[in-house]
Amino acid sequence: MTSFVDAISGKKVLVFGLGRQGGGAGDASWLKDHGAVVRVSDKDLELCPEGQTEEQIDWAEIVIKNPAVPDDLVLINRAKSRRIPVYTSVALYVKYAKVKTIGVTGTRGKSTTVALITAMLEANHPRRVISGGNIAGTSCLSLFDQEEGKEYVVLELSSFQLHNFHDLRVSPSIALITNLYPDHLNRYLSMELYRQDKEAICAYQQKEDICLYNSDNEGAIQIAAKSPGEKIPFTSSDCQDWETNLPGEHNRANIAGMAALSKLLKLDEKLARKIAAEFSGLPFRLEGVGTIGGVKYVNDTTATTPTAAIKALEAITTPIIWITGGDTKQLPYTELLKEVDNNVRIKKIVILGGKNIPDYIAELKQIAGNKIVGTVTTMTEAVSLARSVSSPGDTVLLSPGFTSFDLFKNEFDRGRQFNEAVRVI
Question: What DSSP state is assigned to residue 329?
Answer without folding.
Answer: -
